[in-house]
Amino acid sequence: MEGISNGIPVNNCSESEQLVKPYVPLDVASELVTRLYGLKVQSIKELVSYDDKNFHIKVLEDYDNANIRELCPHGYILKVLNAKDSQCESIIDAQNAVLNHLTTNKTVTCPRPILNKGGKFKSLEKLYGKSTEGDEPVSSERPYAFYIVRLYAFIPGKLLYGKSCPVHVWYKVGLLCGTLDKALKDFHHPGYKQVDSLWSLKQIPNLVKYLHVIKGPKRKALINEVIQAFSDEVMPQYDKLPKGIIHGDFNEQNILLEEQANQETAGKDYNVVGILDFGDSHYSCYVFEVSIAIMYMMFEDTVDPLAVGGHVLAGYLKEWKLTDLELSLIKCCVAGRFAQSLTLGEYSYSLDPGNEYLMTSAKKGWSLLENFWRVPKEELYSTWKEIISCYKSGGK
């Protein structure tokens, strides 16, 4: 008997059994590419993802899609959105519009959406869940849900995650972040009016609902302290803060690098070339955007984590200015993102145990947050100002 659970059509599947993350074996992914986009798959590789399914696809030269003028030389990314987000089609339209805006104006390198055979940038597809009986045939007894399927041009490069980068790369990350916010300052789409993501920083006060997943009284007390500070310091100022469409997840696994030789050290160097995954893009405060970027850059090992904010801000402020009020709130916003990432990561892991990707932030995050939070604000900002001044004087 078919029913509706949280707005997602399912059959013979209780809410607790429902797989929000789609089950997409390689043969199913290949079939979607061929049926929807008229492309013949040469090779396919699944990529790491939080709650969607992503695949890097390379195709043969022969194709059947009048909406594709020429093939992308580096292949494509097939994205099958999770069932929950697949209910919000207007938001997906907004995300595709942002990407088309950026790629058309060539202001920021990001994935370009590909039209399917029907002339659409997305389609809603019925996909079955994983069988508990092995490779049994698909039948009406198998649970299913509906998922939005999209295709993007693949951008070559290396993810920033795990790379040993010179400090100037963090400056370039800030530069890209500021360039993106500047490029989207006049962009509007009605779909973004519906976005109310749990990952928006304005939702940090609501993290109290998830504190039960935090293990250990010290960690729980730390998160609670950050939530309270954010509620007291940031939220009363929310209406005064400049806003626009932001990326919302400017992290090390979404930033693309191009490797190049370092002439001075004869070692590796990197240039920041693009940004991926606009799935968390929404209308919000610009100070949230740069704070999120600072937080995630602190995970990399090549620079003192407490100094990272100075490098990122130096680049960001070159392209996009912040008011004194915004600058005064950055420490609390950075800490808020730490609290958000650690808490929601723990919560998601409790629902999907074994998915270690969900715990990426936890490996270093707790010690980083504790050290960052305990540093006096005046001391932290003094360090950042000195670094920013050094860039302005040409010292970096």
Task: Give structural notes.
It is a single chain. The protein is of the alpha+beta class and 396 residues long. It has nine helices and twelve strands. The strands form four sheets. It has a five-stranded antiparallel beta sheet, with helices on one face. A three-stranded antiparallel beta sheet has the order 8-10-11. A hairpin with a 2-residue loop joins strand 1 and strand 2. Helix 4 packs antiparallel against helix 7. It is globular and about 60 Å long. The chain starts with a strand and ends with a helix. The N terminus is likely disordered.
A few lines on this structure:
The protein is an alpha+beta fold and 396 residues long. The chain contains nine helices and twelve strands. Helix 4 (217-233) packs antiparallel against helix 7, helix 5 crosses helix 7 (324-351) and helix 6 crosses helix 9 (377-392).
